[in-house]
């Protein structure tokens, strides 16, 4: 005789998963970017922006019941006189450990003042034993490197400031 134990996750329907996901989305600390649902084995993958959003708030039909309206974004900070015009900020696409070189003690991929081309490797972020290459999207001069080598970085954290050049 076989005894099977079922959990709430095993018996959850797609509609129940959808409802629970909408409730979760209403509790996120930023703007929702992506939700992936999987019914077999129940899996939810949620991605959101941590910076204040400038996009309009969701329509009432899309907001879960009982959700509070998003707070107003903070007032814009005064312009930094040391910040070059047109500065492009490269941010972390995931959470992980930031490395400036391909090996400990190795030569950094880039240093402040270097000119980089689109696709030029700037750094590596290690996440779950996978090495993720961080590359430049524009031709520019490296103006600043924000994290220290070996520092854990968060999603959307500034990594590099690039000043576009012709």
UniProtKB/TrEMBL annotation:
Which segments constitute the Lipoyl-binding domain? 87-163
Which SUPFAM superfamilies does UniProt cross-reference here? Single hybrid motif
Q: What's one Pfam family here?
A: Biotin_lipoyl
Keywords, A to Z, come to:
Biotin, Fatty acid biosynthesis, Fatty acid metabolism, Lipid biosynthesis, Lipid metabolism
Top-rank taxon: Bacteria
Q: Where is this region: Disordered?
A: 53-84
Xref: PROSITE patterns: BIOTINYL_LIPOYL (PS50968)
Q: In which pathway does it act?
A: Lipid metabolism; fatty acid biosynthesis
Protein purpose: This protein is a component of the acetyl coenzyme A carboxylase complex; first, biotin carboxylase catalyzes the carboxylation of the carrier protein and then the transcarboxylase transfers the carboxyl group to form malonyl-CoA.
The molecule here is called Biotin carboxyl carrier protein of acetyl-CoA carboxylase
Source organism of this protein record: Streptomyces silvae
Please spell out the taxonomic lineage of the organism that makes this protein.
Bacteria, Bacillati, Actinomycetota, Actinomycetes, Kitasatosporales
């Amino acid at each position: 005789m076989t005894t099977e134990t079922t959990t709430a996750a095993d018996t959850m329907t797609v509609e129940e998963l959808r409802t629970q996901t909408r409730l979760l989305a209403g509790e996120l600390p930023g703007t929702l970017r992506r939700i992936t649902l999987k019914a077999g084995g129940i899996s939810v993958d949620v991605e959101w922006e941590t910076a204040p959003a400038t996009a309009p708030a969701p329509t009432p039909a899309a907001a879960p019941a009982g959700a509070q309206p998003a707070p107003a974004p903070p007032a814009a900070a005064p312009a930094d006189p040391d910040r070059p015009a047109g500065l492009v900020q490269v941010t972390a696409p995931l959470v992980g450990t930031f490395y400036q070189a391909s090996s400990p003690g190795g030569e950094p991929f880039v240093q402040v003042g270097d000119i980089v081309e689109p696709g030029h490797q700037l750094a590596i972020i290690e996440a779950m034993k996978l090495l993720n290459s961080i590359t430049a999207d524009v031709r520019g001069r490296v103006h600043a490197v924000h994290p220290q080598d070996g520092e854990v970085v968060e999603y959307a954290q500034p990594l590099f400031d690039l000043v576009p050049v012709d």
